[in-house]
Amino acid sequence: MPLHMTKIAFGATSPADLKARLTHYAEAGEVRLTTRYLPKRVEEMTGGSLYWIHAHTIIGRSPILGFMENGQGRHWIRIEPYLIPVRGVPKRAHQGWRYLEEKDAPPDLGDGEADARDVMPSKMLGDLMKMGLV
Question: Which top-level group of life is the source organism from (predicted)?
Fold first, then answer.
C-alpha cells in the first residue's frame, strides 16, 4: 500500500480555483512543488498521492510522479496536473507536508458524485465546519 502526503492548498480561494491552477500546467504534464527536505520514506510513496487541504478539509488528491533535486539545495515534489475529488474529511492546517497512511486516506468521489464544498463559499464552509454540520 502506498504512502501519501498532505499539503495545504496555499493561495487557493476554493477547490475550483485549485483545480484551475493545476489544470493550467496540463500541457507541461506535471506540477512541481518546492520542499526543503526530501521525505525519508520516499520509496514508500511510489503510487501515492498528494492530498490537498483547503479550509481545514481534505478536498482532493493529485498523484505523485516522483521527487527530484532542483539544483538549489531543495527538492521538487512532482505531481500530475489534475485534482481528483475525494470525500471531504476534516484535517487541521499544518506547515509543509505530512505523511498520510493509506488507511487514513479518504475515498475518491465516484463519477456523478459531487461534494457541495466545491461550490460553497469558504467562509460559509468554515462556519458550518465549526458547528459540526459538514
Answer: Bacteria
pLDDT in tens, 76-127: 999 999 999 998 888 988 999 999 999 999 999 876 666 666 566 767 766 7
Cα–Cα nearest to 40, from 92, 82, 99: 99
Q: Say how many domains are in the chain.
A: 1
**CA-based end-to-end distance of the chain:** 29
64 within 8 A of 81, measured Cβ to Cβ: no
Is 61:49 a contact under the CB 8 Å cutoff?
yes
Cα angle 74, 85, 94; round to 5? 40
CATH code, domain carrying 30: 2.30.130
**Helix, strand, or coil (residue 80):** coil
Closest CA to 6 of 42, 49, 36, 55: 49
Domain that holds residue 100: 4-130
